[in-house]
## 1
Amino acid sequence: MEKISRRTFFKRTAAVGAGALLTVYADGSYRITLAQEQVAYRLRILHTNDHHARIEPVSGREGPIHGGVSRRKTMIDRIRAETTLPLLLLDAGDIFQGTLYFNQYNGMADLEFYNAMSYDVAAIGNHEYDSGQSALASFIQAASFPVLSANTVVDASSPLAGLIKSNVIIERDGEKIGIFGLTTETTAVLSNPGPGVTFTPALEAAREQVAALQAAGASKIIALTHVGVNIDRRLAQEVAGISLIVGGHSHTPMGPMLSEPSASSPYPEVITAPDGKPVIVIQAWEWGRWLGDVTLAFNAEGRVIDVQGPPLEVLPNIEPDQGFENRIAVLREPLDQLRSTPVGEAAVALDGERANVRTQETNLGSLIADAMLDKATPDGAQLAIMNGGGIRTSIPVGPITVGQVLEVLPFGNTLARVDLTGAQVKAALENGVSQVETRAGRFPQVAGMRFSFDPTAAADNRVASITVASEDDLTPIDPNATYRVVTNSFLLSGGDGYSVFQQGANQLDLGFILADVVQEYIAAQSPVSATTDGRISQGAAAAAPAPVTAPAPTPVSLPATGSSFHPLWLLAALGAGAISSGAALRRRVRERFAEPVPAPAGEREDRELVGIGEERR
C-alpha cells in the first residue's frame, strides 16, 4: 500500500463479525482482516473480464469516459514496476465480440494487445465461440498465455482438440498457485460452438479441479470463471478448497464501480466455504472500464487471512501507451472507412440500451423487427421475433452509417423463418419474458403482433394476451392456427432458449444477413422516425400506444464513473453499520497514473445505475 502523509491520513476501523476487522483509509483503500495470524505469503491479483473487443475507450457525448487497452497497459506497467509482491494478471473471458474490431479481425487484434500486456491466464467465455471453433483455435494457438475451461469437452475431430487446458499451476516466489477455468454451460444456446464441443456442469468440474490441483501440490487455488456472479456464489458456498474466484459473464459492477453503496455487490465478496474457510469473490464489471486489483494474505496453511484493495478505474486522463496508440491507429483505418459509409439518417434517437431492449419495447427494437417482417413478407411471414440480446447499442440522431448498424447487430446472423402454431408462438414469448428480471438477452422485440405480460407471475405463465394483425385490425391469437414467423438464424437453431422454433414446420434460413436487411430498411425509411406503439406492455391486456421512451444519451450504462469511493458496501455486506466514505478513489488513481487534470465536462450527467448480477450475453 502506498504511503501518504500524516496530514492527509486517517482511517476508520470497524468490527465486521466473526472477529474480522474492516479498515478504510483516507485514500479510499481498504483492508479486511479475517484472522489475526502470521502472514506467510502475499499475492496481488490484477483482473479484467468481458472485454468484448473494447480496444478503444468507452465514449460518451464529451469524448472518452474510461477504459481502452492503451491506458490499461500504462496502469499495468506501473503497478508491476511499483509492487514488490508476486503478481498475476488474469482475464475471465469474453474477449471476443462487441465492436467493429471483432468484425474485422476475429479477436486477433485483441490478442495482440493481450499478449503485449503479458496476461498470465484467461478463461474461455461463451462469445469466444461466436465465429466458430476454428477462430477460437487460432486465438489459442497464438496466445502467449494458457486459455482455460475445465468443463469443456472437445471431440478429437474438432479444431480445438488438444488446445483447451483445464488448469495450470503457476509458481510465484516459491509458491504453487493452481488456476482452473470454467465456461457457462449455456454457451450452447448463447453462441455457436458447433458439433464436437459440449459443456459439463460447472460445479462438478470445479470439485474435480480442486482435487487435481491439491494433489499436484497447489495450496492456493483460483477459479477463473465465466459463469456469472450467481454461479460464482454457489461455487464459493458449495465447493471447498478455493481461495479466490475471479469471475465474468454477468458484467457485474462491484463495490466502488457502483454509484450507490450496495450490500448485494461489494468488492470483494467474502463467502464461507463448506470447510469454513473464507472465499474471496471478485469481478470487474465490463469492457476494461476498471482494472480489478486485490491483494490476498495467506497463513502457513494457505487460508486467506487478509484482503486489501480497491479496484482502479481506467480514467481518460491516464497517459496512454504510445506504442499501443500507434498500433490502434493502423488497425482502425479500415474500420473508419466502414464507419463512414452512409446508410440513411435518424430523425430521432434509436434506443438500443441494454437495460431497455431486454425488458421492454424500444423504438430500435421495433424498427429491427419491422425490417425483418418487411423483408420476409413476400415469403408469407406474418410475425417477427428478435432477441433483445442481439441488439448491442443505440443510434443517435443524425447520419446513420454502415459501421453503426454493424455495431448494433454485430453477430452476422441471417434471416430465418418457421411455421408455428399460435400455442407455439405463445411458448416462444413465454421463453422471451421468462428471465426479464435478470435482463436476459432472450427478451423478444416483435412485429406483426402485440402482447402483454406480467413479470411477477411464474416464469412459464407470464404472457397475458397476444393479438396479431388481421387485415386492418388486431385479433386474439388462435392457439390452433398456423403463423409464419421470421426470426434470426441464431434463434431458429434454439439459441437463447427458443427451442420451440426447432419444433416448428417449414424451417428455412432465408440467407439475408440481418445487418444488411436493417440497412436496406433504414435507407428506404430515411429519415427514420421510429416510435414505440404499445406492441409490448405489462399487465392483463395489451395497453394503449405508449409514448416514445427517450434513450439514454450514451450507448452504455455507467454505474459509478466519477463518483466518490464509498466503503458502505463493504460494511453492509459483512454485517456491520455504515461509516463515512474516504476520499475519492478517482483522486487516488489520478495521483498514481496521471497528471492531475479536471474531469471532462458533463462527465457525471450521463450515468445511471444498472442491475446487479444480471446475466448478459
Note: Confidence is low (pLDDT under 50) at residues 1-9, 541-568, 575-592, 595-617.
## 2
Amino acid sequence: MEMKTYSRIWFISIILCLTTIGASKKDALAADGDGISLETFKLSPSMGAIFETTLPEVKEHRWWSIGGLVSYAHRPLRRETSVVSTGEVLEEADAVQGRVSLDLYGAIGLFDLAELGLVLPLVLFQSGEGTEVGGDIQSAGFADPRLALKVRIAEIAGLAFGVGAVVTAPLGHYVSSGGDVLGSTGPTAEPQVLAGFRTGPAIIALNVGVLFRPEATLANYTQTHALTWNASFAYDIRNFDEPQGIRLAIETNGEAGIGFDSLIETPMEAILGAKYRTEQDFIITAGAGPGMSTAVGTPAFRVFASFAIDRVRRSCPAGPEDMDGFEDHDKCIDPDNDQDGLLDGVDDCPNEAEDQDKFQDQDGCPDRDNDGDAIPDAVDKCPMIPEDVDDYEDDDGCPEEGPGRATVKITDSQILISSKIYFDFDKATIKPVSYPILNAVAEALTANTAIKKVQIEGHTDNEGTEDYNQKLSEDRAKAVMDYLINKKVQSERLSYKGYGFSRPKASNRTEEGKAINRRVEFAIIERD
C-alpha cells in the first residue's frame, strides 16, 4: 500500500513538472524560429533499412541490433537572419552554420511480425547565431528521441509491404532556449506505408508517410504537417546478409509541407553510400550527399558514418554450426570445409582441397608428388610416372631412355621391350620419351622378316568404366601401330587389339599395380 502511494506521488510530481515547463515556454512558442525542426534525415533504427528508407522485413523474435551514427550537416537551416533599417541590411548571419550529431540507435524483433526501434539523437556541436541576429546558439544538447514501430504485412513475388509509425518526444526543445532549433515544441507522429522489391542483388524501396507536428514559424516560412517520402535503390556487390557483404545504395528523402507554396519550401536531399558487414556481423556504413533544395532542414551537404552490431541467423539447410574451427562465425555447419566434394567425415584433410588428378582422390588430401619421385607435381612433366634417376635428364620428372638404353628381345611368342610405352594422361598420344623404344621395335621388325604378323595389344588399369577403358586400350594400341607404320614397317604385318582392364598383370588395389597394368605388348602371331 505504501509503495503504491509513493508511486502515485512520483507520477503526479512528474506531471506537475512537465506542466510547469510547458507553461514557462508558453511565450516562447510564438517566438520566431521557436520549435523549427531541422532534421529531415532521420536514420532508421532498423538494420533492414537502406539509410533512412525502412524495408518491410522484420528481425526474428527477440533478435536485436544496436549502433551509432555520426553525421555532419552544413548549413541545415538554409536561412540567413538579418537586421534591416531604412531598406539597408545592417547585419546578416547564418542561424546554424554547421551541426555534428550522434544518433544512438537499436532495434528488436517482436514475434516474427514486428520490429521496435529507438533512436536517441544528440547534437555534439553546432555553430551559428540561432534564430536571432547577434544571438547565441546552444553548442550541444539533446534532440528529440524517436520511437519507431514497423509491422510486416505481406510479400508477393518479391514485393513486400508493411506499415510503420515514428513518434517523437519534445526533449530537445525543453532542454534549450527554443531558438537553438534542437526540436519541436511538442510530440510528433508519422504513420508510414512501407514497400520493398528485391530482384537478385538489387533492392528498390519506398516509404510514404504523413508527419503530424506542432506549427512553427521563421520569418515568412511556416512549418506544419507534411507528406514525407524516402526512395532508395540498393545493389549488393556481395550478399549483405552474409559475412563480408557489401551494399551500395542511393537514397532521396524529403517532405512536402501541407500548404507550402513552392519547391523552395520543400526539404529534399540525396545520399550516396555503402554498407559493409564483417565476419563478426559488425556493420560499417558511410555516406554523403547534397541538399536538393534550399528549404529549412535541407543542408548544403551532409556526410555521415556509422558502426553497428547486427547478429543475423544464417540460412543453414545442412544444420547448425559444427564448431570445427572453420568459419564458425556464420552459425552454419560446414559439411565440406575445403569444397572438394568429399564430406569432412570421410575427408582425411578436411581443410585442404583434394587436387582431383586421378591419383588417390578418395582420401581428400592433395598429393604433391603422385609418383613419389621427389619431384613435386607442380614441376613434374610426368606426375604419374616416376623419374628413373639414371643420370640422364633426371630433373624433368620423366623417365628417359638414356643413350644406348632402348633394347628389344624377340622370343617365340613376343617382342619384349626394355621400358614401358608412355602416353599422355587419359589420351592415346605417345609421349616423346617412348620414341626410342618404338624406334628399336621398328628396327627389330625390319631386320627380322621371318616375323610375318605382330598383334599390338593395349591394356589399362581399372580406373573408369569398362567401355571407356576398352576404347582407350584400343586407341593406344592403334597409335603404336600407326607409329611403326610411319617408321616403314609394312602395315600388313601389323594388327592391334584392346583388352581394357580384362587382363591385369598385377593388383589394381595399389598405384604400383595400376602402373604395371597400363601397358602395351607385342604378340607374335605368325612367323616362318
Note: Residues 2-24 form the longest helix (23 residues).
## 3
Amino acid sequence: MRAESGKPLSRPLGSPIVLSRWETLLFNPVHLAPRLPTQDGVVIQTGVTIGPRAKKPLHLEIPILITGMSYGGALGMKQKIALARAATMAGTATNSGEAPLIPEERQAAKYFIGQYNRGGWMNTPEQLRQLDAIEIQLGQGAQAAAPMGTASWQIDDPFRKHFRIPPGEDTVIHTRLPGVNRPADFVHLVRELRATYGVPVGLKTCATHYLERELDIALEGEIDFVVVDGAEGGTHGGPTILQDDVGLPTLIALARTVRHLERRGVKRDVSVIAAGGLTTPGHFLKAMAFGADAVYIGSIALVAMLHTQMNLATPFEPPVQAALYHGKFKEDFDIEQGAEHLAKFLKSCVEEMKLVAYALGKTDLNQISRDDLVCVDKELARVLGVDYAGYPREEQHLAWTDASRTWDGAPKVGAITQEGEAVATQTSGDAATPSELCSLTFVPQDRSKRNLIATALFADGAAAVLVGGDAAAPAQGNPAPHPAIVGRASVTWPNTLDVIGWDLTDDGLNVVFSPAIPELVRRNMPEFARGFLARFGLTPQDLRHILAHPGGAKVLDALQEALGVPPHALHDAAEILAEYGNVSAATVLFVLARRLNRPWPAGEPALVTALGPGFSGELVLLCG
C-alpha cells in the first residue's frame, strides 16, 4: 500500500498493539478482613467532580466521559448529536474534539467540554464562555502533536461553514497551539483561561516519557485536570506509525502521572482523566483504582452507539462508514436509537462497577484505590506500586529481595561515622560528609524570637556515610548491618519559599523558620510518603522504624501524626534531638548511625525522611 500511494497509511480506531496489561491486575474482594463486604441495599456513590478548586467545578453523575471526537474532522453531525444526548441521559459529559462549537451538539449536551485546540476553531471568547470545562489539546495518544488536516477537496459546504474556511483552503491542525511557543506561554494561557471563565481548565497530551516535566509546567499554571491519553488511544484515521510506535502505554503513563502528582502534594486538587484503549468496566475501575478520577471512552462508545446500526454498512463496508463524516451511510444513522444504546452501555458499565464496590466493602467508586488491587506479574507490580499476588500484604518487601537478605542490585550503606567513631569499614564506595556549623549564623545584636529559638535548636555537627556494593564489610567485632538503598524520592511543594531558609542581611544570616512547618508536614507528607511507599508494596504502618531528620519536637509530632505510626517508630530521631539538637543536614545520619548500631533483621525495611528549604521533602527506603 505504501508502494502504491507514496503517502502515510491511515487506520481508524487506533492501534491493534495493546501494551497496557490490565489483565494482570485483579481486585481484592473481602469477606471477613480487613472489613466485611458492603451490605446489599446500600447505595454506591458514582459521582465525580472534575477540577475541585475551579470557581465552577464540573460535577458529573458517573465517572465515564465521552472523549474528543470532532465534527467534520471525524464524525458526522448526527453522530455528534447522539453522543451528546447519550451523555446527557447518563449524567456525564461529552467533548467537542478539535472542532468549533457546534450549536446542535451543545444544545444536546447538559455537560460539555470543549477543546482549546491547535486548529484554533474553539479558541474564541464567544465559544469558550459556553463550555463547562476547557481542555487545552496539545496532542493525543493516537497522533501525538503531528500536523494533521483535511484537504480542500474533502470539505463540503456544511463543514466549511462551521469551520469558517475560505473556499479552496485546507484545514490545518498545527504541531503547536497558536501563541504557545515556549513553556511560559502555556502557563500564562492556563492562568488567563481560569481567571476569565472560572470553569476547570485541563491539559491533554500524548502520554510521553517526559510527562513529569510537562506536568510541572502545567502545575505552575495551576491546571485543574490532566488527561492521560495513552498510546492505545484511537482516532478516526491516522498514520499507523503514530498509532503503533509513539507514546507510553496508558497503564504505565497513568501510574506515573498519579505518582508525580502525589509527590508534588497536589493530587487532591488536580483531577486525572485516563484515556486510551479503555473498553470494559474492569478497565475503567482499575484506572480509577490507580488514581484516575474519571475515564474517557471513544472507540468503544462508537461501537455501543452504532450497535444494531452497524448493519447499515456491513457486510460490504466497514462499520465506521455509518459514523465518520465522510462515511457513505452517515445520513442513514438514527440519532435517538444510537443515543439510547450508548446510554444503556454507560449504565451497564456503572452497574458492574458498583458490584465490585460491594465486593470490596466500599460505598463510593472513588474509595477504590491501589490497595484494592494485586498484580500477578512481579515486575509490573513493582513498577505500578501495587501488591504482588505471590506474597501476603505483610511480606510484600520479600518480593524484591534475594534470599531474604538485600534488595536486588541495590547499593549498600556500608559505614557511618559519628563523633569520630567508625562503626564499620568499607573497601570501596562513595562517601558523603556533611559538616554543619550552625552556631556561626548567630547574630549577637539580633534579639528577635526567631534568632534565639534557632540558636537554642541548632547545633554544630558532622557525619560521614559510605555507600558501596557487596564489598562493604562490618568492622571487626561490630555487628552493624549493611542495609540496601532501595529507592528515593524528593519533592518541593509549591509556594513555600518562605518556610525554611536564610535571609542575607548586612548583619549576617537571619534564619527563616516558619511556625507553619508542623501543619505543612501534616498536610503534605501523607500523600508524598504513601505514594512513594506504594511503589514497593508498603504503607507507613508496615515500617517499624522512621529514621527522620528531627527538625524539632513539634515537627516530629506532626510527622508521627501524618504517617499514622506509633511514637516508638520515631524513637531514634527523638533521642538524637534530645542529645544533640538539630545539626542541620548531618542530623539524619546521626539517627541512621544509632539505628545501625542495633540488630537489623534481614529483609526489614525502614524509611529515612528529611525536610529542608524550599519547602522540600526527601525520602529514602532502606532494607536490611
Note: Residues 402-410, 414-428, 475-479 have pLDDT under 50 and may be disordered.
## 4
Amino acid sequence: MVSAAKSNEASQSQQIARQRRVPSSATQTTKTQVEDVPYTLAGARTSPLSGALRIACAWLLTASTVCHPGTASAKAIQTAIDDPAAACSALGQASIKDTQIESASVLPAGSSFKDPDGKPVQTSTAVCRVVATVSTEPAEHVGIEVWLPLDGWNGRLLGVGSGGFGGSIVYSELAPAVARGFAAANTDTGHRGGAQGAVGQRLDWATNPTQLRDWGHTSIHLMTVAAKAIVQSYYGHGAAHAYYSGCSTGGAEAMEEVEYYPEDYDGVHAGSPGMGYSHLMESFLWGARLPAQQPDSKLTPDALAVLNHAALEHCGGDGAVRDGFLANPLACHFDPAQVQCKAGDDPAHCLSAAQAHEAARLYSPVLDARTGKALYPGFAPGSESQWALIQGALVPNYAQPLVANVVFNNPNWDWTTFDFAADGDRLDAKLAPSSDAMHTDLTRFKAHGGKLIMTQGWSDSLNAQTLPIEYFEDVARREGGVPKTQHFFRLVMVPGMSHCGGGPGANTVGGGVPPVSTSTDRDVVSALQAWVEHDQAPSSFIATKYIGDKKETGVQFERPVCVYPTVPTYDGHGDRNAASSFRCEPAARLIRP
C-alpha cells in the first residue's frame, strides 16, 4: 500500500505537471533534484524559480536549455503558465523559418466548427489555435493549423492526416487529439478545395506541379517542421515525442513520412494507406470500366449479396455467415463461377455469366495489357458486401478527375478509354513521383528509432486489402525476416472493417470509429506511445463493433485484432460476441514469387 506522504507527493507532482504542460513521468524523474537544491547550470548557482518553471527547466537539461530567470526560454515557459492567452497572442510575432502566422488566438472549450463534409465538430478543451502558412516556393504555400492545449499538455505532438484530395483543415481530427492532451497539427495539403472531384472539373492544384507535389509528398513534412517550432515557441521547449496518425490519404501521408522524412516522427500509424496512389487509381478504373461498357455485367445489390453469402459459406461456414465477414481471407479460395446461373435457376439467387466475369475481374489483380504483370492486387473474398463503391462513385469522384487533370490535362477525358499499357506508363510518369510511397528500404526510419503500425480492413471498399501485406512482406524480405521487421514495423489486419471504419466487423482499431477507451490494447496511438517510450510492442488489439457504428448506442460485439501473420481463431465454445472467445494464432503468410 502506498503511504499517504507518497500519495500526496505524487498528487502534487501531477498537479505541477498539469500547470506546466509537460508529462508527469518527466516530473517524477526530476522532482527530487530540483526541489532539494536550487537549480544549477554549468556549476553556477541561480536564483530560485517558480516550482513549475524549475521542473520544466530540469526536464529540459538534456537539451541544454538555459533556464536562468530572464532568458527567453524561462520567460516563454513562465508566460505560458501565468497567462496562456498572452502567450498565445504573442505567437503572432514569432519568427519561424518559412512560416507566416496568420492568427493566434484562444479557442474556448465548446467552440464549434464544420468539418469538410459539413459535419459539426465541437472542442472539449481550451486551446491556442494557430493558423499559419508555410512557404514552399515564392508563390506557393501550405496552409496549416496547430492547436496547443492551454492546460494539461502531455508534452507530445500529434500530426493528423487528411483524406481524398485534402484541400482543407480536418477539425474532426484536431479536436480529439487536443482533448487527449496532444499539441496537434493538420494541413490543407497545399491547396483549397474539396476532398473529391467530379467528371469535367478542372483541378487547378493537380495541374500545378508544386501543389501536386505538396498534396502527395511534402505537405505533412512542412507542417511538422513548422508545428514543432510553434510548440517550442509557445511552451518554451519542444515536444518530448512526435507521433502521426492518418487513414486513407492520411495513411499514404504516413508512409511518405516514414520513407522520405523518417526523422519527423517517433511513432507513425498508417491506416488503410493509399500509398500506391497511381495504381490505386488504375484499380478504380479497372473495377468500373466493364460495367460502364457492358451494363449487364454490373453487380447489383442482390448479386453482391448472393456473391458475399456464397464466399462466406464456402470459406468460413455458418460462423462466417452469422458474422458477415471472414477472419482470415488469405485462406479462402473462391471461384464466382460457383454461383453462376444454370438452366432453370432463379436469377435472383445466382449471377449471370457477365456478372460472374465481372466478379472474377474484381478478385483478380489489375494487369498490364502488354505483359500480364500484376500492377495492383484484387479484392479479397468476403469483402463483396462493400463493393458498390468500386463500380460506382470511386471513378467519377476520384480516378477520372485526378487522371484527367494530371495525365491528360483534359477534365472531360473519357475514362472508359484508359489503356492499361501506354496510359499506365503515363500515369507512372506523371502521378507516381508525386503521390506514391512504396519504397521498402526503411533503414533510416529504423535507425531513428521509429515505430510503425499499419492497419488495414479486410472488407475495405476502396483499397485492395492485400497491398499492405505485400508491402510488409517485401520489407521483411529486405530486413531478413518477419521477426526482425517486427522490431519496428507491425501490420494489423482487421477482419470485417471497411475503409477507415464501417463494414460488418469490429472496426475501432485503425479507423475513424473511436475505441471504448484509449488503453494500449484498444487504441493505436496509445500503443505507439507505449512502444516508443517503454519498448512495449503491441501483439494484438481488442476491436469493438457498436450498434449502428455509433459509440453512444452500445457494444454489439468485440473481437481480437491480431498482428500479421497471426489471425483471430474461435475457441469453439465461447460467446462469439466476446473477444475472450478468440485467440491470435499463426497462419499461412502471403508469399509472392
Note: The first helix runs from residue 4 to 20.
